[in-house]
Structures are given as structure tokens and as C-alpha cells.
Design goal:
about 120 residues; alpha/beta; three-stranded parallel beta sheet; two-stranded parallel ribbon
């Protein structure tokens, strides 16, 4: 059970849950013996014209202009930050969201679910 899903964890629940945006992904305190789980990370933003809920607004934590820029940044995030945490005890991680949601354009898919923003092989 994830009691807080990343915010203001007071030691309840079965997981040490954390949301990590903007700052480098890192391992949680070793004093907490619960399994460490990054319940949200990423937030990488690519607004795809013609596939937006509101073309005037978008939200995310890092913004990219092209599919290639997004793929490079996402790949670096996984290789340089997420994978090394496995050796330190990371038990799981969940990317921000599967698809864009209204003005949040930081999903793998566009708001209309018609376009995958990165090559499938990179995220599977």
C-alpha cells in the first residue's frame, strides 16, 4: 500500500514512496527500511501540434521541441539516473503519465492517444 504516493511521507504504508521532478533522481534514506519506490518521475514535455487539448497552454517539468530531443533526454534519465538506483535498492518506478492530460503535455502519448511521442523500443 502506497499511503501518500510521494508527498509528505510520514512512515505509513508499505513503500517509501517519492515523487521526483526537476532534481536528480536519488536514493531515499537508508534509515527507512520499507522498499523504496519512485511513484512519479520524469515530467518531460513535448507538445505535439494538432494533438493538444489546449494549444495555448502546456505544463511539464522539462520542455523539448522535437521528438529526438525528448528521446535523448529520456534515455539519459533512464541510463544515468534511474538504472543506477536499482543497485542501491530501488524496487520500482513509474513515469509521470501514460498520456497527456488536458494541459499536462508530459505523457508518452498525446492527449488524443493517437501519437506515441518516442520510439516504442525506447520506452518498453
Amino acid at each position: 500500500m502506497d499511503a501518500v504516493s510521494g508527498w509528505h511521507d510520514n512512515g505509513a504504508g508499505e513503500l517509501r514512496s517519492r515523487h521526483t521532478y526537476i532534481v536528480r533522481l536519488k536514493y531515499a534514506s537508508k534509515r527507512d527500511k520499507r522498499p523504496y519506490f519512485i511513484s512519479e518521475y520524469g515530467g518531460y514535455n513535448l507538445a505535439v501540434k494538432g494533438h493538444l487539448w489546449d494549444p495555448e497552454r502546456r505544463f511539464g517539468y522539462r520542455f523539448f521541441n522535437t521528438k529526438r530531443e525528448l528521446e535523448i533526454a529520456y534515455s539519459r534519465l533512464i541510463r544515468r539516473q534511474l538504472i543506477p538506483l536499482i543497485k542501491k535498492g530501488l524496487t520500482g518506478a513509474v513515469y509521470t503519465q501514460l498520456s497527456d492530460v488536458e494541459t499536462e503535455t508530459n505523457g508518452f502519448y498525446t492527449y488524443d492517444r493517437k501519437l506515441l511521442k518516442m520510439d516504442e523500443g525506447l520506452i518498453i
